[in-house]
Amino acid sequence: MKKMNKIYFFVILAVLAMFIGCTIPTSYVHTYKRVKYAELDSYLEKITEGRVHYINVTGVTAADLKGDAVAGNCSPLGEKIKNASSKLVGIKIPKKIKGLTSMEACFLGCENVVDLANIPKGVTDISHCFEDDVVLRELPPMPKSIENMDSCFSGCVGLIKGQAIPKNVKNLKSCFANCYSLKSVKFNCPIPGDATLYQYIFEECNSLKEKTIKVQAGDLAKCQEELTLQLMFAFNPGSSKYASQVEAAKTYFTVK
Q1: Distance from C-alpha of 19 to C-alpha of 140, rounded to nearest angstrom
Q2: H-run or E-run covering 116
């Protein structure tokens, strides 16, 4: 039921966008309004619905960007944005923030963040960062420092494509689970040796097609055998087409 609610939300949002002239863009070239973090609540309260507002949030600290996935809590920044859930926003934060290494659950459950212009340098953990953000369309540019992407984009039903996965990523568990619209992804990192670190990575990603997942040459055979199993969650084992669907899924992988 939760999955279906997300789908309905996204479809309704798209229909509303057609009627009110609001488009959800897929580019990171925008004009951002500078807003101090301390004044963000007031700014979000004043802006109108029906269009995307691009906000350059200044004065943000490391503590403002870290949530708690176990407790189901987004970050303090995410909480401010979630409280303005009827307002679509694109967010930009400083390229470097002192002491920031984790953006765990930063926007967890925020269903109105269209995009994030950047992830600051030095961040290693973006697990659950955008989980259940149904209007996110593209992955933001990611620094090479990132290592943990556990459930990062899980439930982002509108996610279509994104930046390459950084080479140092070690945990991809459920990273793209339930990303029904995902059409392509590129891995600059090797696929983890421990299967639990990529379990459910492509669960229900039924928009992927032939040669849409780019991997390193040394990982191709492994992906075709093991990651294909993750794609199988999108198929019905009772269907007469199941065997052919599994074989077709192996062709989704190609060398980047």
Answers
A1: 28
A2: strand 113-116
Contact 235, 204 (CB under 8 A): no
| Alpha helices (H) along 67-199 | 76-82
Provide the 10 A C-beta neighbour count for residue 246.
Answer: 15
What six digits make up the tokens of 83?
């409280």
What does the pLDDT look like over 205-218, one tens digit per residue? 889 889 999 998 88
Q: Which domains does the chain have, with CATH numbers?
A: 97-255 (3.80.10)
Centre a 10 Å sphere on the Cβ of residue 200 and count the other Cβ atoms it contains. Answer: 19
Identify whether the C-beta of residue 225 lies closer than 8 Å to the C-beta of residue 251: no
Structure tokens at 165: 């996965």
Which residues does 82 contact at the CB level (< 8 Å), separation at least 6? 74, 109, 110, 111, 112
Strands 253-255 and 213-215: parallel
Percent helix, strand, coil in the chain, to 5, is 25, 15, 60
% pLDDT > 70, the chain = 85
Using one digit for the tens of pLDDT, what is the confidence trace for 69-127?
Answer: 999 999 999 999 999 999 999 999 999 999 999 999 999 999 999 999 999 999 999 99
> How many H helices and E strands in the chain?
6, 7
Name the residue type at position 44.
L
Rounded-to-integer distance, Cα 103 and Cα 61, Å: 11
CA distance 234 to 206: 6
